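Progress note, sequence design subtask.
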């Protein structure tokens, strides 16, 4: 297993956040081993929805991109997976971890962990078949992975490991575990030991740890607790600190122009997102990024109340005019 500076690092799929504009910012600091795209709704993709082309942007490193799918319908999941498998990238990931009520009620996200296991197994089998059929001229089929949680509040290690053995038997080649139950909030620390237990029970495929890793210290603690995990996936910490992967890898400190980074992100949103998405994408990023600064809550409040993209640029400039000491920060 790879350790320390060679330990695989992944960017988590996050709604309204892990789009191309955000990946461009992450890439400034050396990026990571794999970028998981924000989840794509299979039905919307197949219906050629007006926004789907923006979800399909694959820069800046298309060979490292993982396409995450969500839907309640197995046949649509399979058909969409077949289409995505023809694009560049590492593979297809099935969302079985989203616990947002509006997603679960439709039968998607973590609902796939709660359905009769035969139904979920059939869906995975159909997706796997579609991915394999999409491989042409003897090319290797794209990897199939699943991101999930522990399960509902009745979770047991035995139930989780049994579910994951089913996934492996149906052709899943990697599992990412966010070790919280359906209703557990982020105020409660992840149970990293559950990742270790799962990795030991299904050693045939990699198990990736996701949750509560935000810096070098927490990375080392996670690896110590789950030494058989085969990688670490980082989510919101990458929005707060786009340099977090570099920080974990180590290296010479560098001085970051935080003001310019904020303005460049706004520019990337303008370039790679539709106007209808500007506000939500900016608010999502700045909700985390603003917490780096001396008056973070004030800055955050300002950015959450933007009216349009020009107002966002104006508010960024005004903040750093008031707090010039926050412009440059030295980071690893």
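Output:
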């Amino acid at each position: 297993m790879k350790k320390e500076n060679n330990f695989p690092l992944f960017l988590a799929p996050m709604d309204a956040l892990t789009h191309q504009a955000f990946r461009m910012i992450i890439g400034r600091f050396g990026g990571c081993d794999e970028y998981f795209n924000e989840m794509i709704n299979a039905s919307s993709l197949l219906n050629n929805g007006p926004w789907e082309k923006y979800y399909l942007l694959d820069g800046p490193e298309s060979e490292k991109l993982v396409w995450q799918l969500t839907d309640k319908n197995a046949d649509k999941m399979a058909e969409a997976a077949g289409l995505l498998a023809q694009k560049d990238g590492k593979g297809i990931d099935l969302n079985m971890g989203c616990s947002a009520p509006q997603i679960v009620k439709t039968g998607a996200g973590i609902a796939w962990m709660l359905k009769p296991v035969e139904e979920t197994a059939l869906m995975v089998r159909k997706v796997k078949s579609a991915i394999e059929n999409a491989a042409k001229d003897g090319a290797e089929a794209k990897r199939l992975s699943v991101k999930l949680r522990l399960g509902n509040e009745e979770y047991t290690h035995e139930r989780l490991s049994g579910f994951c053995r089913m996934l492996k038997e149906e052709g899943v080649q990697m599992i990412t575990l966010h070790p919280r139950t359906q209703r557990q909030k982020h105020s409660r620390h992840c149970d990293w030991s559950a990742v270790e237990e799962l990795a030991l029970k299904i050693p045939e495929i990699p198990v990736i740890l996701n949750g509560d890793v935000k810096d070098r210290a927490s990375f080392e603690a996670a690896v110590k607790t789950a030494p058989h995990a085969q990688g670490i996936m980082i989510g919101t910490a990458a929005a707060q600190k786009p340099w977090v992967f570099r920080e974990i890898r180590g290296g010479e400190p560098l001085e970051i122009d935080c003001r310019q980074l904020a303005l460049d992100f706004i520019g990337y949103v303008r370039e790679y997102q539709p106007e209808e998405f500007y506000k939500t994408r900016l608010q999502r990023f700045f909700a985390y990024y603003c917490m780096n600064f001396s008056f973070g809550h004030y800055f955050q409040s300002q950015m959450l109340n933007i009216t349009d993209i020009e107002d966002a640029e104006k508010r960024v400039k005004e903040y750093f005019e008031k707090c010039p000491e926050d412009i440059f920060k030295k980071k690893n």
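The chain is about 45% helix and 15% strand. Work on this subtask will continue into the next period as scheduled.
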